[in-house]
Structure formats: C-alpha cells, structure tokens
Amino acid sequence: MGRFTAALDLLGRAPSSFLSTADSNEGQDWEELEAGDNRPDAGSYDYWQKRAATYDQDIFRSSDEDHEGIIHGEIDAAARRAEKARELTKGDDGSHAVSKLVAVDAGCGPGLWLDALTKRFGRVVGVDQSPNLLEKAKVDHEHLLQSKHSKVELQTAADLGQPCKSEYAADGQELCGPSVPGTTHSADLVASFNVLLSPNKQARENILRREVEMLRPEPGSTLLLLVPSAESYRAVRKLYRKLGGVESGLGKYADYLYDHPDEEADNVFRVFALTKHYSKKEACSMVEAAGLECDKVLSFPMRWRFVFPFASDEASFLGRFIFVQNGSELSHSYLYLSIYLSIYLSNIYIYIHIYIYIGKEVVSISSHPRLENWSGACQCSAKAKPLCALYLLFATDCEP
C-alpha cells in the first residue's frame, strides 16, 4: 500500500532499509533514533506520506530489479491462468481476452508496476493510502491515464490494515470492510508488493484478508505478494559485524550494531522504520491461515548496492519467492510471495563478493555467480562452483 502496509517493500516499495546517516533524508541521525526508540511503523500513513518526497532516492524499486523477468513472468502467468479458467477467446493480437482481465495493484505507491500490468490486463486499479504517492503515480504515469488503449484507475484507499467492519457481498458472504469500491470479487490478479510490512500482526492479517476478498471467487485468480526476508536481514547484519562494522569501510549502519530481542522475536527489524520481515516457515503459516497452501520456492536476484551502497552493481545475491496455491474449496486462487531480501548465502560467499569490489585490486568476474535449481536439487552453475561449494556447507535446505 504505498504504505505498503508495509513491508516486503512496502508494497512495491520497501523502504531502503540500509541507509547510512549520510544518505538518510529524515533529518534525524541514527544515534537519536537509537536513544529515543521513536521508530515509525513501516506501514503507517504518516510514514509513506513523508517518504513520498524522497521515494526515488530512498526506496527499493522492485520493478527496476526484475532483470530476469521473474515477477513479469508471474504477471503473465496469472493472465494466462485467468484466460484459461474463464475460457476467454483471443483475437489475432490477443486483445479481446486482455480487455476482459482485471488487476488490482494493492498498495501501488508511485505506480512502479502499472506499465507491466497494463500489458496483460485490460483494467488496472491502483489503490494506496498515501495521496502523496498517488500524486507521484499520476505524474509518472500520465501516459497510461490518458491512453485510449488501457484503462487505469488510481484510488485513494483507507488503510487496508484497519480493523474490519462487517460488510456483505452480493452472495451474502461476510467481508472485511470497509472494502475498496469496485474491487470486491473483481480481480483476476491482486498484486501487493512490499505492503505487508507493519509490525502489527492484526493489521497484516486484515490486509491479507482484504486482498483475498478482491479476487474473483473462482479458479484462475491470483494473488502476487512481495515481502522482506528475516533470514536475509540477519545474514547481512552478521556479515557487517564480522567485517568490522563502521570500521569495515562499508558505511555507518547503526541498526546493524544493536539487537532488540523483544522485537526480533517477531522478526521485526529496525530499517529506519519498524519493518516486519518473514522467515519461510512464517510466510507459509501466514498464507495457510488465509486458506492457502505453500507450494514451491524460486530465487530472485538483487544487487548488493541495496544493502551496501559501496558494493558493485555487478555483485548480486539471491532472494526468493514462495509460490502458494489456495487449496480451499471456496476460492481457488494462487499466491506468489516474494521475499525480496532473502539470500541464504554463506557469509564466506558474501565476504568474497564484497572484497572483490572494495579491495585494492578489483578482480574481474565475467558473470554473476548464481545457484541453479535453488528449490530443487540445489546444484551449482559451472561458473559458480568454487563459491557455491562453500555456500552448500551453510545452506539449510540443501545437502553439500
């Protein structure tokens, strides 16, 4: 939700969780925040209203990082599932089927994914709780709003995490109101990128319930989520400390120097704002509670500069997505949950990557070291064999 409500990017925009004091535009340094403990909720209205002014500088833009087309591929797959389930016919250019498909970008923020959605869905509704972010979306995507070939609507929506008030659908089903006008049981795809970020568990559950209720209650509808990884945060923090913290030359990140067990028991971390992160098990439990079933895990690469600005753009690490299929009899939908900062790489692997860049001698690597078949056999690509072998010693899901 622009706000994301929160997190895996705050709906499409996860706050840049690793800003140094020099990079922060908040006007309050890390030491003050640490002493005063006045961290905002990463899913709050005030937080995203304020962040809108520096969004392009401070916030992770998931749409710019999908170099391998993973999210784009899932958007396309969602459209194809809906076309098949609804038995929609296509013209020679496929336009007839596309015109009947509906997508809701729940927590659209400045509209990072509107262009991609309009290529496969005839009607796209972007909703966000932040008027400031929606104004940015209108400016950045004026071409879509004025296009005769796509139908794009932007709506200011009340916080999707607020307490539910009973409403009823046309079929008598009780809903978590207030619902967003015109979205109940209407969407073939609900995309929600970095929205489930609030440290408030009930708020997250309310958001997820409202998003599920936006889906068409029949086979073929899809829910696509992007959320942050707890494993990733802990691994990066451990690496930062191991390399010497501030003395490492990577920058000043006070949030990596302190533990807060009372918060971290719930995988809530301080990335300027209090931001909910997810373990794989926790993410699965969340969606299963909503009537969904975890199916498989896929990888999603991210550049190191989103963690340490001094890292090379050529250095990347693995995130992951969790694909969840709804097994309930009432609603056959799909959930694709992306954990945008999940790395599951060994510290040694990361250590080598960083020092290839910041050492006195820059070592040239012709391609990004990658792991292949992450969710399956956990095999290494040929070019990544030396480093991957180290990784496998630490991996929790793979045998060396």
TrEMBL record:
The keyword Transmembrane applies. The chain crosses the membrane at residues 334-358. Residues 104-143 form the Methyltransferase domain. InterPro entries: Methyltransf_25, SAM-dependent_MTases_sf. Keywords: Membrane, Transmembrane, Transmembrane helix. The keyword Membrane applies. SUPFAM superfamilies: S-adenosyl-L-methionine-dependent methyltransferases (SSF53335). Pfam families: Methyltransf_25. This is Methyltransferase domain-containing protein. It comes from Symbiodinium necroappetens.
